[in-house]
Amino acid sequence: MTTPTQPQISPAFDRYLLEVADAVNTTLDLNTLLQRIAEMLKRFLDYEIFAILLLNEKTQELRVRFQVGHPPEVAERIRIKVGQGVTGQAVLRREAVLVNDVSAEQNFINSAPGVHSELAVPLIAKNKVIGVLDVEAAQANAFTDEHKQLLTLFASRIAVGIENARLYTQVARQARQLTLLTEISRELTSILNVDQLLQRIADLVTRIIDYQMFSILLVDPTGTVLQHRFSLRFKESVHLKHEIPIGQGLVGHAAQSGQAVLAPDVSKDPRYIKANPETRSELCIPLIYKDKVIGVLDIEHTRRGYFNEDHVRIMTTMAAQVAIAIENATLYERIARQEQRLEHDFALARELQFRLLPPKLPRLKHAEVAARFSPARQIGGDLYDFLKYSGHGNIGIAVGDVSGKGAPAAIYAALVSGITRSHCAEEPSAAGMLEAINLSLAERPIDGQYVSMIYALWDDSQRHLQVANSGLPRPLHLRDRKFTEIPVTGLPIGLFSSATYDESNLRAKPGDVFLFFSDGITDATSSAGNMFGRGRLEKVVLKNADRSADEIAQAIFDAVSEHATGVEAFDDQTIVVLKVKGTSVKK
Q: Residue 395: beta bridge partners?
């Protein structure tokens, strides 16, 4: 067996190989490394055409990574299968291939005009072929066996450096992509307007893929078709109206399968539906939220084979964030619309509630009446009303506090108010009115709903007050600057089908003040946790006792508001003030 002849390495070439090794070991930037390799190779081989082709292990294709002398547009499109051409043979045979007359070589791939000789040397790192170093010349017999041997040595020195630089480039690119995806995710989740979000998605995708056509399609509510929600064509926004049934076309297939669809050449993919005559390659990425496809990102280009598996990987990762952002923005907009409807409904309910209150106060000869009402929320469950009895100056005064808060309490308060007015024609006594309301509510019971209520009858000509109570704080009576509670109590209305109530009758004097109020007044709490209480209420009334009923009512509300500054009201607040005209006569 004959041992292959080893090349005679001159001292100069030996030093040259040391320089090559040093150059290879001092950079991990692949572009810089390949440029240095081309310059150093030129020192001992005066080539005309030079290329380094790297092997794609998955497709088993060689692609030009760096070249000198090839037409750029040709070099960019070159895809050489292992075993094809001189370079493909070098990979297959794992040894240098020298062709001195390409016209006699059936396997020759003519990528540059005028080539007559070619020398291809495999790049082998860790016993694995990673690519080919290829030189070509216009004249025949341009390369010798010595060139072949020297180029083989040269390739053995640079292969590991190229592989390390390529791996570093991949890792660095992946790190940049992960950083970019993190930035994109953070930005997307901060946009809650769907239209603005879709526009921003299109902008951010360009940082990953320099596409020419881009669309976002979302699954319609029926779950049967994809609707175009946003589209760009050569950086111009366009409005596409046509829908794509799930399962049809490339995008429909991506939505149906929940898998990315990569079409390097759409003309060769039977699933493709021709919509854009310029499209040559297409990438469709499903948007999946909680295991459900909600849409598809559709990316197109005019160049065949433009998209690759790296694009699929990073876009699939990004699509997961996009799906979450779209779903969040859609949910936010839906909630915002619901809140707008609720705001409108609450505004209408608030207006109706205030319209249910007396439009004007009773005008009496011997007394003044004032009232204030403030719901803890937009609408509340407190009520007050003035009802006219027969006889000049005879009125009924109702102050109520429904259990609960908000809309349910407001509706129940409206019901109670209507029942109260319906019984007014019967002109019942104070206790009789509470009993009548209780019986009416017992006929239409509502679980958990009841009302605490004060009902008073004022006879203006006799200055006489009759009062009954069903659970509100006891009314206060101010006479000669002294307060007394009117001793009337009773069960709230609506809890029991039968209930009776006591009455208290008082003969009023000029200057007397009567206060009917809900517990939202005395229970108002300060930031320190202190209740307003009856003591503060009495001080405010005493301080303003010589003023009108309306001024007293306003002073009470101002004091309560000041006391509870910075604290959200917990309960509705209602007060009615009845002040007897004239100056009190102290004994």
A: 388, 458
**Backbone torsion region of residue 453, taken as left when φ is above 0, otherwise alpha when ψ lies between -120 and 50, otherwise beta:** beta
Give yes or no for a contact between 66 and 91, defined as CB atoms under 8 angstroms apart. Answer: no
* 133 and 120 Cβ atoms separated by less than 8 Å: yes
- Please check whether residue 454 is in contact with residue 475, taking contact to mean a CB–CB distance below 8 angstroms: yes
Q: What are phi and psi of 308, to 5 degrees?
A: -135, -175
pLDDT score, position 456: 97
**pLDDT 10s digits, 131-164:** 999 988 888 888 888 888 888 888 888 788 888 8
User: DSSP secondary structure string, 57-113?
Assistant: TTTTEEEEEEEESS-HHHHHH--EETTSHHHHHHHHHTS-EEES-GGG-TT----ST
Buried b or exposed e, range 113-137, using 16+ CB within 10 angstroms:
eebbbbbbbbbbbeeebbbbbbbbb
| Residue 330 clears pLDDT 90, i.e. is over it | no
Contact 107/101 with Cβ under 8 angstroms?
no
Residue with the bigger pLDDT between 477 and 443: it is 477
**Which value, to the nearest 10 degrees, does the dihedral of the CA atoms of residues 338, 342, 348, 354 take?**
-170
Coil vs helix vs strand at 117: strand
Give the span between the Cα atoms of 324 and 336, in whole angstroms. Answer: 18
- The answer for residues whose C-beta is within 8 angstroms of residue 21's C-beta and 6 or more apart is 157
How many other CB atoms are found less than 10 A from the CB of residue 94? Answer: 11
Checking if the pLDDT of 229 tops 80, the result is yes
Q: Which residues pair with 117 in a beta bridge?
A: 137
pLDDT band at 6 (very low <50, low <70, confident <90, very high): very low
Q: Which two tokens stand for residue 282?
A: 């297409």
Cα-Cα end-to-end distance for the chain: 144
Q: Where residue 584 falls among pLDDT bands split at 50, 70, 90?
A: low
pLDDT digits (tens, 9 = 90+) for 518-545: 999 999 999 999 999 999 999 999 999 9
The b/e string for 517-538 (b: 16+ C-beta within 10 A; e otherwise) is bbbbbbbbbeeeeeebebebbe
Say how far apart CA 169 and CA 183 lie, in whole Å.
21
Distance CA 583, CA 153 (A): 122
DSSP element (H, E) containing 340: helix 309-356
Q: How far, in Å, CA of 431 to CA of 277, rounded?
A: 87
CA distances from 358 to 274, 349, 454 (A): 70, 16, 16
C-alpha span between 353 and 383 (Å, rounded)? 9
CA–chain centroid gap for 482, Å, is 61
Residues linked to residue 217 through DSSP beta bridges, in sequence order: 228, 296
Rounded Cα–Cα distance for residues 20 and 430 (Å): 110
